[in-house]
Amino acid sequence: MTTISENYLKTEQIAFPEIYLFRTGSVQSRFTSWHEDLEVLGETYTARPIKRSGFSRDTQMGKTTVDISAPVLDIMSSYVANTPIEPVTITITRLVRDDLSQLITLFVGQVFGVTFKDRTAAIRCESNSSILNVLLPKIICKPQCNHVLFDAGCGLLKTSFTHISTVSNISGSSLTISGLGATGYAFSSGYIQYNSDYRMITKQTSDVIDLHIPFYSISVGSAVSVVAGCAGSVDECENNYNNLDNFLGMLTIPQRNPTLYGA
Fold it and tell me: Which residues, other chains included, contact 31 with Cβ-Cβ below 8 Å and sequence gap of 6+?
């Protein structure tokens, strides 16, 4: 591996190197489209055959988009296995001189979608400014609660419904978690965290939980955090959490659309 200044001293290059910084939570991954690893400002950027499109700007929506083609990166695995998906931000920077202070930030945004074919990922990115143009209703007319479990409207504390323990048995996508059933919490529709990886819980029977996709490297004795879930029904709100005062669903909304089918 060489530094960027050494690269320029070796040979003249028509194309300028670009570096890609992906962030999700506390995890950062660094890559470069250069032909070899680069060290920039004390950080190592691993060479990958990354290609990107030009930047396309939508003047009406005020957003800039770019498409990236790259081998499947570890940080992209969350788009296959994790629910919910943590936001992945991306910064694309061009190195213009051997002076490392001379950097040009070309793009700062978020990964909005990833498709996979063979061992290649097609990554769709949009600039952060596009988030400001999304119009969403604050409240949706539906029987289920409009709040998300543990948000400000729900009012419950996640720490009060989190069970920290160890894995005592593994069977495919099912895990046995010591002491889980004794908590009395409902973990279906919740999630489990192992290191920085997450999985949705589809079913709970006492200490046993079923996951939508198994963890890749978990083992018996691994420490995990299991967080209770809620599907938003009034029964769960009242019976599992005794939180009916904060329920925000429309229980009398018709199940059939009276405009289309009559009352």
Answer: 19, 20, 22, 45, 46, 47, 48, 50, 70, 73
**Shared fold status for 2-133 and 158-246:** no
Q: Which residue bears the tokens 């949706």?
A: 140
Beta bridge partners of 227: 162, 191
> Per this entry, what is the length of the chain?
263
Give the architecture-level CATH label for domain 158-246.
Answer: Beta Barrel (2.40)
For 170-175, the CB contacts below 8 A with 24+ separation are: 170/218, 170/219, 170/220, 172/214, 173/210, 173/211, 173/212, 173/213, 173/214, 174/208, 174/209, 174/210, 174/211, 175/208, 175/209, 175/211, 175/218, 175/224
Q: Are 170 and 219 in contact (CB under 8 A)?
A: yes
Q: Residue 176 region, left (φ>0) first, then alpha (ψ -120 to 50), else beta?
A: beta
Q: What pTM was computed for the model?
A: 0.53
For residue range 193-243, list pLDDT tens digits in order: 999 889 999 999 999 999 988 888 899 999 999 999 999 999 999 999 999
Which class does domain 2-133 fall in?
Answer: mainly beta
CA atoms within 13 A on the CB side of 225: 11
Q: Tell me how far apart the alpha carbons of residues 78 and 80 are, in angstroms, rounded to a whole number.
A: 5
Report yes or no: 249 and 143 within 8 Å, Cβ to Cβ. yes
- Tokens found for residue 202: 């589809």
What band does 152 get if pLDDT is binned at 50, 70 and 90?
A: very high
Sort strands 43-47 and 27-32 into parallel, antiparallel or unpaired: parallel
Cβ atoms of residues 125 and 109 within 8 Å: yes
Q: Where are the domains of the chain?
A: 2-133, 158-246
Separation between Cα atoms, residue 18 and residue 194, nearest integer Å: 33
